[in-house]
Design a protein that fits this description.
The structure holds three protein chains of three kinds. Chain B is an alpha/beta fold. Chain B has ten helices and 15 strands.
């Protein structure tokens, strides 16, 4: 019986329509690149106001996240990602989308357990593992080099 | 009146007819190739209802209305309602029962719910005691998405084998009084699990269950596929149908001449970006209650085997890495030549 | 020139994420976790900082930049506060982005309704 199952899974894997990997990659490149160019433009604006590159990075993140949230609210961001995949998901605008989308969706379940709790359904794991990794890396660097 | 057993899992029913059918679908389904064959098409997915869940209940209520109208009866003529849906605790079917106030038997076998209901109702009616039974199944795209997958506005790419849950409801009034369609026999399926794990590929997970039930039905009744004008599976979709054809062929059963699928015919996959095709309990229910029933009545088909298929998993089980158990129930529906 | 490199580097990072998702059949959430951790690790090795200098927003806008920002923040904080900095530094550096996402998310949820 188990070999039956294995054979069946093998057959379906062979017949499975292929994901359009090349096309996905090309669109991800163009869209992801363009979002970063917009980010560069925003950063350039803040630097033009007299900030250093480092100082400008925080306000740039805020503006990009605001843009992502706005496009999500208008119902456009999911369409961008449908075509561009990671090109829309990986930039920080996609992070905003991952917080705004569930919050909007579960508005019907109330402000606390609906909006409040669901803001972090997708973003939660990213924060948890991002924070943990940053802490481990920071501690290791401190131990090894003596400078964090 | 009696139910007669044929073979291991098939029951021949006697004097059970379909008196009326109702089908109501959402806008996307209303733009597909079957658009002209539904009773009502909603202009948008919400149609003025405050939540997706309430919209699904309203969709079902409208399908009930249409079925009652065509069967020329009213709720007080219905002895029992048998039906189900996809949402947790089958809320759509249960909440709608607040309105109709008829005895209710709620079912769940995911997208196989509709033929499970048809089968059980046929056996009950055939057994005697009941006069008219309402059978229904419903699903709503947005309500199912938020329960099973992701929030609507969250961007993600669908894989080529992902199914599109239909916004659709179908209801039929079945009776011991003659009607345009007659139920001939019923095969209740068993759970088949071939180790599929991917919730984005339910077609290939369900295909062996469909095969098992079809073969059982043919063996029990001593028929071959060509004895039917069409065999319609529920929602295997494009890929699932391909897999079923090949799998059946390997087991020496050639279905290619008669096999089709409700989910695959509901949308235009190229134009409507629905990938594998439609799914959800409402998919086979509405496609039967609308287009297929119509084709039977018009005489395009004389004998139809409807085999709705269900993937019996929950979001919890697939996150825990469990494989997907699947089931299929078959109902043979024939055109009643005497009823004109 | 920085715009060109932002486009190329940011685009390539997205391509890499897309390939990881398609080849390993991962969910978008899993890919994001992998990339934020990768950003932290590359930040610790000093590689990501160079990439940010070179490509600007092309490296800071994609999510690995978020991991890198937190590692840098921890570095700064440890210099000032010692071990406590391991706990405070990461979120301090990323606070703008996180707070923005929470506030904008909340506001958007109140204003907008999901379309289909």
């Amino acid at each position: 019986m188990d070999s039956d199952k294995q054979q069946y899974q093998q057959m379906t894997q062979e017949m499975m329509p292929k994901r359009p990997v090349l096309r996905n990659a090309v669109i991800a490149f163009v869209v992801g690149g363009l979002i970063c160019v917009v980010g560069q433009g925003v950063q350039g604006f803040f630097m033009h106001q007299g900030m250093t590159t480092k100082e400008a990075s925080a306000p740039t993140a805020v503006v990009m996240i605001g843009l992502g949230a706005l496009l999500t609210g208008l119902g456009w961001y999911d369409r961008i990602v449908k075509h561009s995949g990671m090109g829309g998901t990986l930039p920080i605008t996609g992070f905003a989308n991952s917080m705004v989308a569930p919050a909007m969706e579960f508005r019907t379940e109330g402000l606390v357990m609906g909006v409040g709790a669901r803001l972090f359904t997708v973003a939660g794991p990213v924060l948890v593992y991002g924070m943990t990794a940053a802490m481990v890396v920071g501690a290791l660097r401190w131990l090894i080099t003596g400078v964090a | 009146m009696a139910v007669r057993r044929r073979g291991a899992a098939t029951y021949e029913t006697d004097r059970v007819w379909i008196r009326g059918t109702g089908s109501v679908v959402g806008p996307k389904e209303g733009q597909g190739p079957l658009k002209d064959h539904f009773d009502r098409v909603w202009p948008d997915e919400q149609n003025g209802h405050p939540s997706w869940e309430k919209a699904e209940q309203a969709l079902l209520a409208e399908a009930y209305e249409e079925a009652l109208k065509k069967a020329e009866t009213a709720w007080n003529g219905i002895d029992m309602v048998i039906g189900g849906d996809l949402l947790d605790q089958i809320v759509t079917t249960n909440f709608s029962a607040r309105e109709h106030q008829r005895p209710l038997a709620g079912l769940f076998s995911a997208c196989a719910t509709f033929t499970e209901g048809l089968g059980l109702a046929s056996m009950l009616l055939s057994g005697g005691g009941l006069d008219q039974v309402m059978v229904s199944a419903a699903s709503h795209h947005q309500a199912a998405e938020r329960q099973f997958r992701f929030p609507l506005e969250l961007g993600y790419q669908r894989t080529p084998t992902a199914a599109w849950t239909a916004t659709a409801a179908g209801a039929v009034v079945m009776a011991t009084k003659p009607g345009p369609l007659r139920i001939e026999s019923v095969t209740l399926g068993r759970v088949v699990d071939m180790g599929g794990k991917d919730p984005n590929d339910m077609g290939s997970a369900m295909a062996p269950a469909a095969f098992d039930t079809i073969q059982q039905h043919l063996t029990d009744t001593g028929q071959s596929p060509e004895d039917f004008d069409a065999i319609f599976t529920g929602d295997l979709g494009d890929f699932g149908v391909k897999v079923l054809r090949r799998y059946a062929k390997d087991k020496h059963l050639d279905l290619s001449a008669v096999l089709d699928d409700c989910g695959r015919s509901l949308y235009d996959a190229q134009q409507q970006d629905t990938h594998n095709g439609g799914s959800g309990p409402g998919c086979s229910a509405s496609v039967f209650a609308g287009p297929l029933a119509r084709r039977l009545v018009q005489g395009d088909f004389r004998r139809l085997l409807l085999v709705a298929t269900g993937a019996l998993f929950s979001p919890t089980t697939y996150q825990q890495g469990e494989t997907i158990p699947c089931i299929a129930h078959a109902v043979a529906v024939v055109r009643e030549e005497a009823f004109r | 020139m920085i715009f060109v490199w932002a486009f190329v580097v940011g685009g390539l990072m997205c391509v890499l994420a897309q390939l990881v998702m398609d080849w390993f059949r991962m969910t978008p959430g899993q890919v994001l976790v992998v990339f934020v951790v990768a950003g932290a690790v590359l930040g610790g090795l000093g590689i990501y900082g160079k990439l940010v200098d070179f490509a600007g927003a092309g490296a800071s806008v994609p999510l690995p930049g978020f991991g890198y920002t937190m590692v840098e923040g921890i570095g700064q904080a440890v210099k000032q506060k010692g071990a406590l900095g391991l706990f405070t530094g990461g979120l301090t550096a990323a606070s703008g982005g996180i707070k923005a996402a929470v506030i904008f998310g909340l506001v958007a949820a109140l204003i907008f309704k999901p379309k289909s």
